[in-house]
Design a protein that fits this description.
This protein is an alpha+beta fold and 176 residues long. The protein has a single domain (6-175), classed as Collagenase (Catalytic Domain) (3-Layer(aba) Sandwich). Helices cover 45% and strands 15% of the residues. The chain has five helices and five strands. A hairpin with a 7-residue loop joins strand 2 (54-60) and strand 3. Helix 1 crosses helix 4. Residues 158-171 have low confidence and may be disordered. The chain binds zinc ion. Zinc ion is lined by residues 101, 105, 125, 128, 175-176.
Length: 176
């Protein structure tokens, strides 16, 4: 199973900054929601999503504080495989594309524009994919056009939602 190297992780860090900037400019709103990003080495079984580039979880802990946050689980192996199969795709641009998509979900869920627990997940995915493309077209980064060409050729991952328990007994919900 291929995992990100330290160099790849630097690109994830840079990509996060760029994706946040694109969303803040494009929607004229900041991302206020607490979130973190994990890569494959740190992922538990419920956080893995074979066939997808990322999985988004809403984590709710137990205890008096009931801390809640979103977690973007990057699937290193799927991302590296896509890059291997499409040698002209730039990794930073690809990471920006993936994170822009996930951060739009987070912004929408946190602001109440979409409901994480609702069942119309298909509509949410289509809306977010379209908005990500619009924002990336408005604030283009080098290499993004090639990524859309590649994405249009591969079948979209199956949409699903799961609810399960995490180690500390809290619950999770998942989006791609
Ligand atoms: Zn999605």
């Amino acid at each position: 199973m291929a995992v990100f190297s330290p160099t790849h992780k630097v690109l994830v860090f840079q990509g996060t900054y760029i994706a946040e900037h694109i969303i803040t400019k494009g929607t004229k709103d900041k991302i206020y929601a607490p979130y973190d990003i994990t890569t494959l080495e740190e992922l538990g079984e419920p956080e893995k999503a074979p066939g997808a580039f990322a999985k988004l979880l809403f984590m709710e802990g137990i205890g008096p504080n009931k801390l809640r946050h979103y977690r973007i689980c990057l699937q290193d192996d799927e991302i590296l495989k896509a890059l291997h199969d499409n040698k002209d795709v730039d990794m930073l641009a690809f990471i920006v594309y993936i994170l822009t998509h996930e951060l739009i979900h987070i912004q929408r869920f946190f602001s109440g524009k979409a409901d994480f627990s609702e069942s119309n997940q298909n509509e949410e995915e289509i809306y977010v994919d379209n908005l990500a493309r619009v924002l990336l077209a408005k604030h283009p980064i080098i290499g993004i056009k090639k990524i859309f060409n590649v994405l249009d050729k591969i079948p979209p991952p199956p949409l699903y939602k799961c609810k399960g328990l995490i180690d500390n007994g809290g619950s999770i919900n998942a989006y791609l």
